[in-house]
Amino acid sequence: MVVSIxxxxxxxxLGYFYKISKSDVFVYLDDAQFSNxxxxxxxxxxxxxxxxxxxxxxxQHMGDAINRVRTxxxxxxxxxxxxxxxxxxxxxxxxxxxxxxxxQILMQNYNSLAxxxxxxxxxxxxxxxxxxxxxxxxxxNLNSVKEERVIDIVKLMGGNVYISGHGAKAYQVxxxxxxxxxxxxxxxxxxxxxxxxxxxxxxxxYMSVIDYLFNYGFDWEYVKQAVEGxxxxxx
Length: 235
Hints:
With 235 residues, this protein is an alpha/beta fold. Helices cover 36% and strands 16% of the residues.
C-alpha cells in the first residue's frame, strides 16, 4: 500500500499531482501549521511578462493550522484571480472547458483555506482519473508531530511504502521508516516541457497545474510519458 502526504496547497504544480497519481492513499495534512512561505495561499501562472503570482488574502493568527485559516472573501480576491486567469489563458486550447469548472468550485463558500484547496485539488484528481483514496489528517486523531507523525499516518493507513517530496530529505531518517516496516521512496517527478501560452517568454516550469490544464485539458497520459522520457534520458 503506497501512501503520500502533503499540505493542501492552492492550485499546486504538476509534481504535486504526479505524487498523488503514484499513491493508493493520499492524505491532506490539513491540520499542519499555516506558513506564509509555503504555497498554501499562492501560486504562479504565466503571462506575456513572465511569471505572475496569484495570492489569497487570509485571516490567521501565529501558529494556526491551515484548516483554521480563513480566506478574506470580502476583498473580492476570487473575482480578481479569475479575471487575471481569463486575461492570460482565454486563447488556450482547453480554456472554455476548464475555466467554467474551476470558476464554479472557486466561487463556492468554504469554512477554511484548507477546505477550499481540497475541493479544488479533488476536482483535479477526479479530472485526471486517479484511483486514490483521499483522507484528511485532521480526522485521524493523531498527536505525534513532524517525522513521527508522517510515519504514524502511513501505518494507520496500512501503508508499507511512503512517497516523499525531495525537500524532506533534509530532516527524514530512512532508518526511522524501515524500523516501522515502511519503505521510504522519493518522487520521480522532474519538470516536463509542454506547450504553453506566450511562447516568446520561453517555457516556464513550476507553474500552477491550471497552466497545464488550460493547454492540455485532463490529459494525464502526456504527463506520464513525458516524465518517463526524462527518466530515460530523453529530451
